[in-house]
Write a structure and sequence with these properties.
Layout lengths: L7 E6 L5 E7 L9 H4 L4 H9 L12 E8 L13 E5 L9 E9 L2 H15 L2
Antiparallel strand pairs: 1-2, 3-5, 4-5
Length: 126
């Protein structure tokens, strides 16, 4: 393959623990949004440096990260103020099943991150 830049391969684990390849995208992708806070270089910086043939330092993970898509209705963020999170609002009007933004969560402790993720997810889906 003669390609330069970010190449995303998105996988899912099903309920039985089977790894399923979902999508391959030769570009930055929503699956990489966690890199904005979770890595020393985000996917956008890495892509620009690669296509501009600039030196790209080693990419490293800063902490455990997860992302939740915001669909249909914008959340009231006061309920998650105690979490280490970043909210990205896409400035779209609310509409059923429309992606309005996303929240990335970060924590050095994976178990705490998963607990926070479940709390935020349950809050947002209501």
């Amino acid at each position: 393959m003669n390609y330069v830049g970010v190449l995303v391969i998105e996988f899912f684990l099903d309920k039985n623990g089977i790894l399923i390849a979902n999508e391959m995208a030769p570009r930055v992708h929503n699956s990489g949004h966690w890199t904005n806070e979770g890595a020393n270089i985000n996917q956008f910086q890495a892509h620009i440096k690669a296509v501009a043939n600039c030196e790209l330092e080693s990419i490293s993970i800063k902490n455990h990260s997860a992302m939740v898509n915001i669909l249909s209705k914008k959340p009231d963020l006061k309920n998650i103020k105690d979490f280490d999170y970043a909210y990205y609002d896409y400035n779209k009007s609310e509409r059923h099943n429309r992606k309005l933004g996303h929240i990335t969560l970060n924590n050095k402790n994976r178990d705490k991150l998963m607990q926070d993720l479940n709390t935020v997810y349950n809050f947002i889906k209501t």
